[in-house]
Amino acid sequence: MKKARAHFPKIKAIAYEGPKSTNPLAFHHYNPDEVIDGKTQSAHLRFSIAYWHSFRGVGSDPFGPGTIVRPWEKGTDAISIAKTRLDAAFEFFQKIRAPFYCFHDRDIAPEGKSLAESNRNLDRVVAHAKDLQKATGVKLLWGTANLFSNPRYMCGASTNPDAHVFAYAAAQVKKALDVTKALGGENYVFWGGREGYETLLNTNLKREQDHLATFLHLAVDYAKSIGFKGQFLIEPKPKEPTKHQYDFDVASGIAFLRTHGLEKHFKFNIETNHATLAGHTFQHEIEVAAAQGLLGSIDANAGDELLGWDTDQFNTNVKELTLAMVSILRAGGLGQGGFNFDAKLRRPSIDPEDLVHAHIGGMDAYALAFKLARRILAEGKFTKFLQDRYASYDAGFGRDIEKRRVGFRDLNKLVLGKLGEPKPRSGKQEYLENLLNSYLHG
Q1: Cα distance between residue 414 and residue 407, in whole Å
Q2: CA distance linking residue 422 with residue 432, whole number of Å
Q3: Which helix (H) or strand (E) holds 164?
Q4: Which residues are known to be catalytic?
Q5: E strands along 4-127, which residues?
Q6: How far, in Å, CA of 237 to CA of 241, rounded?
């Protein structure tokens, strides 16, 4: 392959220089080559770059057009521009030392006037992506289809009241699955961008949810038929753009999957910002998924608690991330998932260099949280506290309760007899919060 021209000429590959370094273009906590428990940090964290924000986002908002400067967005031929954009992206992936990237089908190739033309466009650009992956070693963490931007999806895709739209969405996902498999994608994500409703006056809720389940079953069947071995992921989101999304949060997602016999085929891609919109913490959503063995991957961003929409900021909140990493590590990690930076620059951050600073900050924050979480778990103070707090269920009638070997009559007899009145025990929340701070600031 002919060597492409540099699109980030002033940026060298970001090196690890340690926490004492004052170089803003260096990693201070993320050392991708450091080996921990037989795996590099890069292999533990599996960072991924979101193509849509980093290379398609322009900084527009409801009050104004884009502001972000991207020198490679020049020309009149859409396919040529798409290939040049990929060149710039893969240069960035290498310089930021990210082993993975993610995309929607319409991120990497322009949509045509028909599905057939869109598919041809996608094939041409995907061939270039395949060459770039081979040349650089960067892999595809997951692919997905954009079933929310085109006006045909204004009332949803699989939940659309028009069966024609359902069929079109199925055809689009078929192609996206073909492409994801061709590029060696390790996962495939379903995000129901408009799978919800604005008013129940024009919505048959049960029928729409049944149609969504049918769509997912058809996707599972097709994946099996083509030999796609990747993990299917559901990405919950409670609101925005629709008033009520059917995939509101992890708990409702679990209920939906089990109701429709899909729980063996799907895990969850949990986004921090979506947890905030659902009124949950990031750690809560992780714990709910992990408790059921359904933790799959992470969209690594943050929302603003003062704003009621998806701000998709880079997350540098080490406390929040440390708590999340404790839960992730305690659950055994993410398997073939990873940490995808589904985050965008702020509207005034217009330079290509800003993209580098943003990802350095996000990767460093997660790497530091990873190290702190490992130390917290290794020292076992929180683990011992939890074991002690629930110790009454480890033996005797407590264990019988968990094994369902006693009933209300048995427990009633115990309480009226030798047990009597329970003695309250402190939850020690303030002590535990201080203990956490000792790790964060020690």
Answers
A1: 11
A2: 24
A3: helix 163-182
A4: 104, 107
A5: 15-16, 26-27, 35-36, 39-40, 47-50, 100-104
A6: 10
Across the strands, what pairs with 339? 47, 298
Beta strands in 227-382 (DSSP E): 231-234, 244-245, 266-271, 295-299, 339-341
Residue-averaged pLDDT of the chain: 96
Burial tier of 406 (Cβ tally within 10 Å: 0-12, 13-18, 19+): middle
Lookup: tokens for 199:
């008013």
Which pLDDT does position 240 carry in this prediction? 81
For every residue of 262-302, DSSP letters joined together read -TTTEEEEEEHHHHHHTT--HHHHHHHHHHTT-EEEEE--B
CA distance 196 to 190: 14
Q: Which CB contacts under 8 angstroms, 24+ apart, belong to 129-137?
A: 129/86, 129/183, 130/182, 130/183, 131/1, 132/1, 132/86, 132/87, 132/90, 133/183, 133/184, 135/1, 135/90, 136/90, 136/93, 136/94, 137/99
Taking the CA atoms of 320, 310, 300 and 277 in sequence, report the sign of the dihedral they define.
Answer: positive
Question: ω into residue 161 within 30 of 0, thus cis?
Answer: no
Could you give the CA distance from residue 294 to residue 273 in angstroms, rounded to a whole number? Answer: 19
Q: For residue 298, with 0-12 CB atoms within 10 Å meaning exposed, 13-18 middle and 19 or more buried, which class applies?
A: buried
Q: Give, rounded to a whole angstrom, the gap between the first and last alpha carbons of the chain.
A: 50
Single out the residue of 369, 361, 404 nearest to residue 28, CA to CA. 361
Measured CA to CA, the distance from residue 328 to residue 331 in angstroms comes to: 5
Strand ranges (E), 25-153: 26-27, 35-36, 39-40, 47-50, 100-104, 139-144
pTM of the complete model:
0.96
Cα–Cα distance measured from residue 207 to residue 391, given in angstroms and rounded to the nearest whole number: 46
DSSP lists the bridge partners of residue 16 as 27
pLDDT tens for each residue of 374-419: 999 999 999 999 999 999 999 999 999 999 999 999 999 999 999 9
pLDDT tens digits for range 219-263: 999 999 999 999 999 999 998 888 899 999 999 999 999 999 999
How far apart are alpha carbons 396 and 127 in whole angstroms?
63
